[in-house]
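Hi F.,

I've been meaning to write this up properly since the lab meeting, where we talked about keeping a consistent format for the predictions we share between groups. The idea is simple: the sequence comes first, exactly as it goes in, then the C-alpha cells exactly as they come out, then a line or two of notes. No screenshots and no reformatting. I'm using this chain as the first example so we have something concrete to point to.
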Amino acid sequence: MKPILQLLTLSIGILSTPIARAAEPAPVVGGVITEVVLEVGRPAAMSVGAAAGVMRPLTVVVYEGQGLSAVERLVKLQLELRESYRLESLEKVESATLDLAVGESQAAPAPIKGLNILLKLVGADDIKATYEVRLVEKGKEPVVTSVAVKRSQWAIVGGRDGEEAPYFFVLFRPLTPDEEKEEARWKGMTRPKVITKVTPAYPEEERQARAQDVVVLELDLRADGTVAGATPIQGKVPSLVEAARQAAMQWVYEPARDAAGKPVACKFTVTIVFKLH
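Output, unedited:
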C-alpha cells in the first residue's frame, strides 16, 4: 500500500509551484506565527481503518489556491480531501497557533496517542517560511522532511491509523506579515470566546440553487460579551451574508480581557461557512 501523501499528490494534483529565487527578500528576524489545523477523516467503510500503525509520509504537499483567502483555501481543500478519499466525514478536531522562532520546534496537534508531530522553523522571509516536519512515534525511528511554504498557503502532512484516526491530516500555514500585525494586537490580552452561538438559517432559495459562500464579519463586541454590530468584510451571496450577520448579532461571548483581567470592548473577526455536502 502506498504512503498516504504520495496518494494525495496523485489524486488531488496540488503540488506547489517553484518559488522564484530572483530578488530574494531579507530574512525575517525573530520568527513566524503559524496556524495549525488537525482534521480526521472517516470513510464510509470503516474496514479501511483496520490496519494498525501510522503510515508515514514521504513528502509534504503544499496547496495553492490562487486568488482565494486563507479561509476559502481551507474550505476548498477540505472539500477536495473528502472527494479524493471518498470520506463520509472530515472533522476539524483541534487547532493551534504556534509562535515559532527561527530554529525552534513546537508540537502540532496530534491525532493519536503516542504520535508527536513537531514543526521547526528553519528560516523565513516576507514571502515564504521553511519548516522541518518531524513525526515521532514511540518505538520507531522518527521521519523528518522539510518544506518551503508561501505565506498564507497551506501545507499538509497526513497518515492513517486504524479506527482512532482512519485518515488524519495536519494542515499548517505561515501567516502573512499583515496577519502577524493583527495577532500582535492581542498580545497580553485574552481573546473573546463564544459561549452562545446561533446557527445561521440557510435560505431555502440558496439551498435549492446549491449556493455556497464563505462570509467574514467584523464584530463589535461590548465589554459584557454581547454583539453591538456585525460588519461584512467578505461574502459573495447577499442573502447568505445577511443570514450570517443576523445570526452573529445574537451570539454571546466570554469578553476579551486586558492584561489586568478586566473585560474590554473590542473588534473581532469571525468566519461563517455555508457549504452543502
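Notes:
The mean pLDDT is 80.
DSSP finds five helices and 16 strands in the chain.

If this format works for you, I'll send the rest the same way.

G.
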